[in-house]
Amino acid sequence: GKPPYDDANIFARILRGEIPCKTVAEDAHALAFHDIAPQAPLHVLVIPKGRWVSAADFHAEAPAEAIAGFWRLVTMVARDLGLEESGYRILSNMGADAGQEVPHFHVHIFGGRRLGRMVP
Ligand code: 5GP
């Protein structure tokens, strides 16, 4: 079965306010903040406010309103950062083969430069 959610993970600690972050946007369902080690001029992480490790968990267990709110914040952030015209990339790592470091579901938003083709 899937591993249990680890309440000590770094994003859980950020959500509890135990660790600071540079907030970009927040609502009842999700939090967006700058990645601590940006891989592009704009590199923002968006996390749902719930205990989900993967996209599958989030989809299966989160209320529809939370899922809608999460994607609303992702697209709002991209728009508010001025990325709609230039373009941007959304990416999410799931599990070992993708190198997921933080076991709390999140998407990366990358933008602000030509990103090149994403290939494995
Ligand atoms: P993953 O590989 O799990 O998709 O990516 C985790 C991301 O979280 C990495 O890009 C990493 O730089 C970022 N990160 C890890 N710890 C922290 C932290 O304490 N604060 C912030 N803002 N980002 C973090």
TrEMBL record:
This is Histidine triad nucleotide-binding protein. CDD domains: PKCI_related. InterPro entries: Histidine_triad_CS, Histidine_triad_HIT, HIT-like, HIT-like_sf. The active site is at H106 (tele-amp-histidine intermediate). PROSITE patterns: HIT_1 (PS00892), HIT_2 (PS51084). Residues 10-120 form the HIT domain. A motif (Histidine triad motif) lies at residues 104-108. Gene3D superfamilies: HIT-like. GO terms for molecular function: catalytic activity.
